[in-house]
Amino acid sequence: MSSLPGATPTLATVVIGAGQAGLSASGHLVRGGLRPYQDFVTLDANEGPGGAWRHRWASLTLGKAHAVHDLPGLPLGTPDPHEPASTVVSRYYGDYERRFALPVVRPVHVDAVTSRPDGLLDVRAGQRTWTTRTLINATGTWDKPLWPYYPGRETFTGRQLHTHDFVDAAEFAGQSVVVVGGGLSAVQFLLQLADAGARTTWVTRRPPDWTDRAFDPEWGRAVEDRVRDRTRRGLPPESVVAATGIPLIGDYRAGIDAGVLVSAGPMVALTADGVLLADGRQVAVDAILWATGFRHALDHLAPLKLREPGGGIRTEGVVVEADPRVFLVGYGASASTLGATRAGREAARGVLTALGAAAATRT
Question: Which of 73, 188, 217, 230 could form a disulfide with 235 if both were Cys (CB 3.0 to 4.6 A apart)?
């Protein structure tokens, strides 16, 4: 497929983000006949391939990470499960970009997407602007860590860091560390910290949601349906653990038995040298690790006014109901690598369909 007649300066679509969803969409656009750089570009804020995976801590090996699903046309194969996931995925994504000659432009941090009077979209990044008929947004969550507010957080004199900034548990050997958050990352950090010789306290707002049911396809469909229902109603996507629970695998059962994966309950405030728990206990700590999740990085879409009163963006599949020119992938039910791969395909098909319909009206 070529650009529409008379639209040489205008791209058919711009993909923002070169993670799993963005690469899947880009690969399907090439398969659908769009010409790299002439009909579409993929803008990525990172210095190199890998998406958010390139920033993961080295101790997160492929065997401990969530499954990484194949991108269309290039199987991942069976990498060493002991190799850091950041290395494996960065290499895989780079291979994919080269194999299909994808038009990835980086590093590009998109500031804003705005609508023009002629019905086109402008994608602005610094002094550069790309004009496009449609947009596939695949920016994920990594660039927007959530730091919940607690009284006294600004007065705590120890170290505070977010999952986003974690590097190595060995940094905390011999220290007392509070891990805040009820999700899977908190569980994994607690075990790493304990193994590294740290004394840990686990803070959760609610009791941990352990589940011993099989994570089979039926379960996966139920989770996707639950998340998809929220986005259809214009509500913000809920956290992963809220939809899935935490699987009671062997390592986690052992952590519970050892007292590491036992919640101390909610925290109500921070003090100068520790935290105050809801049951009245004060715990002196050296560091606080906020494993409190992320929000979708969508600030650049604010000029399009896509958000609903409920705070989310209403979508039907990957199409934004408030603006059908915009396809949202890696959002809601498509936040997993499997869901992102599927969503990328769906978005590419949506773009190709929209372009075909537009071309038909011109003839």
Answer: 230
